[in-house]
TrEMBL record:
Stored SUPFAM superfamilies: Phosphofructokinase
Domain Phosphofructokinase: 2-298
Protein family: Belongs to the phosphofructokinase type A (PFKA) family. Mixed-substrate PFK group III subfamily.
Keyword Transcription regulation: no
Primary gene name: pfkA
Pfam families found in the cross-reference section: PFK
Species this chain originates from: Kitasatospora aureofaciens (Streptomyces aureofaciens)
Binding site for Mg(2+): E103
Keywords of the record: ATP-binding, Cytoplasm, Glycolysis, Kinase, Magnesium, Metal-binding, Nucleotide-binding, Transferase
Name of the protein this chain belongs to: ATP-dependent 6-phosphofructokinase
One example GO MF annotation: ATP binding
């Protein structure tokens, strides 16, 4: 079979492991021909592709980023994008396309699948917010990076008796904030699912200093917001694709906390560091399993699905179901963390 593969949207540790796995399973076990499209859907629509062989994926398992490149371009952004994609798929004689991407990419994949393209999606995002799968690869790496940063920040915070307000990724959901915050024993965790109350946050940090503790660590997801009207708040803007560009919750919160507490506070924005570098062993394994199962789905003709981790198994979930809703942090998880405001 002739199978196209592309990586689209924000990159994520483990993408190369999926690409490698697709090539290994496809070429070695099924005798497939694998075509890699460059820079996500952009390369697909503009005809930039190259053959992927065992040699071209040699040594990439532990590499961060994506050897194919990525972009946030989706066919649905272009008026005739879906039609062009369909035409291109048939001109190239592709039997299947495996897009590896997050929420936006899977929505685009659904549109293309509805238009008749043979698609099997692979979910990825460090945000872990795709409901169909228990976990997305990249998340474990991001949580490990954030946890290490929080551990390191404690010692410098203590030396200077400061409040560190640490911003992690998470546009719509607080999975990274919650897990890294719990792993590092943060004193307050602020997530997008629950607007925070500045008075309550201030009280939590003040109470800590009242107990003669010398520092406090507040972890916040970039998309978190205060309850409306409770503090001065600068809203973000939109980027060229309509995604929210945040103004920096850490900067706004640290300024406010410093003012209210009379204690030095510093913002730390971990940003894209969380997406860079080598994937953890967990992410390499999950990504490899997703690649393997995506090729199997292609050979079974199970188009219009994504691979998903459910319990310990990799199952196929219809694209329509996969994009229906985001996976937010459930109530019990907040309760376990105790420090969520
Ligand atoms: O979707 C993953 C994510 O890491 C979000 O948490 C973040 O808002 C976004 O990507 C930022 O991506 P970029 O700056 O690359 O567009």
């Amino acid at each position: 079979m002739r199978i196209g593969v592309l990586t689209s949207g924000g990159d994520c540790p483990g993408l190369n492991a999926v690409i490698r796995s697709v090539v290994h399973r496809g070429v070695v076990d099924h005798g497939d021909e694998i075509i890699g499209f460059e820079d996500g859907w952009r390369g697909f629509l503009e005809g930039h592709h190259r053959p992927l062989t065992l040699d071209s994926v040699s040594g990439i398992l532990a590499q961060g980023g994506t050897i194919l490149g990525s972009s946030r371009v989706q066919p649905s952004h272009l008026r005739d994008g879906v039609e062009r994609a369909r035409q291109y798929c048939s001109d190239l004689g592709l039997d299947a396309v495996i897009p590896i991407g997050g929420e936006g990419t899977l929505k685009a994949a659904k549109l293309m699948s509805d238009a008749g393209l043979p698609i099997v999606g692979v979910p990825k995002t460090i945000d872990n917010d795709i409901a169909a799968t228990d976990v997305t690869f990249g998340f474990d790496t991001a949580v490990s990076v954030a946890t290490e940063a929080l551990d390191r920040l404690k010692t410098t915070a203590e030396s200077h008796q400061r409040v560190m307000v640490v911003e992690v990724m998470g546009r719509h959901t607080g999975w990274i904030a919650l897990n890294a915050g719990m792993a590092a024993g943060a004193h307050a965790i602020v997530v997008p699912e629950r607007p925070f109350h500045i008075e309550k946050l201030t009280a939590v940090v003040r109470e800590r200093f009242d107990r003669q503790k010398k520092f406090a660590i507040v972890v916040c997801a970039e998309g978190a917001k205060p309850e409306p009207g409770t503090m001065h708040w600068e809203e973000g803007t939109k980027d060229i694709y309509g995604h929210e560009r945040f103004t920096g919750i850490a900067t706004q919160l640290s300024r406010e906390l410093e003012h209210r507490l009379g204690k030095e506070a510093r913002p730390v924005i971990l940003g894209h560091t969380q997406r860079g570098g080598t994937p953890t062993a967990y992410d390499r394994v999950l990504a490899t399993r997703f690649g393997w199962h995506a090729v199997e789905a292609v050979h079974k003709g199970a188009f219009g699905h994504i691979t998903a981790l459910q319990g310990t198994k990799i199952n196929l979930v219809p694209l329509a179901e996969a994009v229906a809703e985001l996976k937010t942090v459930p109530q019990e998880r907040y309760q376990e963390a105790e420090t969520v405001l």
